[in-house]
Amino acid sequence: MQRPTGAVVLALVLALPGAAASQSNVGGAESDVRNEKKVRELYERFTEAWNRHDPEALAALYAIDGDHTEPDGNHVDGRAAVALLFKRQHDTVFKHTRLLLQIADIWFMTSEVALVDGGYAISGIRTPDGEELPERRGRLTAVVLFENGQWLIAASRLMIPTELPYKR
After folding, report:
1. Which of 46, 71, 112, 159 has a Cα-to-Cα distance from 100 of 20 to 30 A?
2. How many CB atoms lie within 10 A of CB 152?
3. What value does the CA radius of gyration of the chain take, rounded to a whole number of Å?
4. What pTM value is reported for the model?
5. pLDDT tens digits, residue range 117-129?
6. How many helices (H) and strands (E) does the chain have?
7. Cβ proximity of 97 and 120 under 8 Å
8. How far apart are CA 102 and CA 47, in angstroms?
9. Cα–Cα distance measured from residue 116 to residue 134, given in angstroms and rounded to the nearest whole number
């Protein structure tokens, strides 16, 4: 039987009774506080692997069938595809980058599923001809799952805020 994709997991989680009313874990249940610490450690390992430019270590933080969507809409499915994407990026445009990641909130939908929200900044991005680009700042939303004794990224979505024409 094929496991559901990250999008299916997110849709199912949001359909759970009380999911819409979920709160941040400030003052939450003891298990949520413990798990929140573990999820934050997952993203600390992500940041460390990024700054070492280690695509395999980055991909190992994803579920086997996890997926990732870049701000430009580029989407990859599965840990192997995530590893290949990060390898291509870190061999080229992200070779000299530094990542700063700030996790703002973690909402536990169940004891094994959480929604993560935060922001990121990447400096040192270079075009193929070597020109350094301005720091890229964006937002991160992810679904993480507790599988095989560890928290893993099931679905990661990045976006870069932009002014909408109808809000000018």
Report:
1. 112
2. 17
3. 16
4. 0.82
5. 999 999 999 999 9
6. 4, 6
7. no
8. 10
9. 26
* 167: its two tokens: 């809000």
Angle at 45 between CA 94 and CA 47, to 5 degrees: 30
Contact between 155 and 67 under an 8 Å Cβ cutoff? The reply is: yes
SS3 167: helix
**What is the Cα–Cα distance from 116 to 106, expressed in whole angstroms?**
5
In the sheet that 113-123 helps form, which strands lie side by side, from edge to edge?
75-77, 62-69, 150-159, 136-147, 113-123, 98-110
**pLDDT tens digits for range 26-80:** 546 787 888 999 999 999 999 999 999 999 999 999 999 999 999 999 999 999 9
Distance between CA atoms of residues 160 and 139, nearest Å: 6
| DSSP secondary structure string for all residues of 34-74 | HHHHHHHHHHHHHHHHHHHT-HHHHHTTEEEEEEEE-TTS-
CB 128 within 8 A of CB 151: no
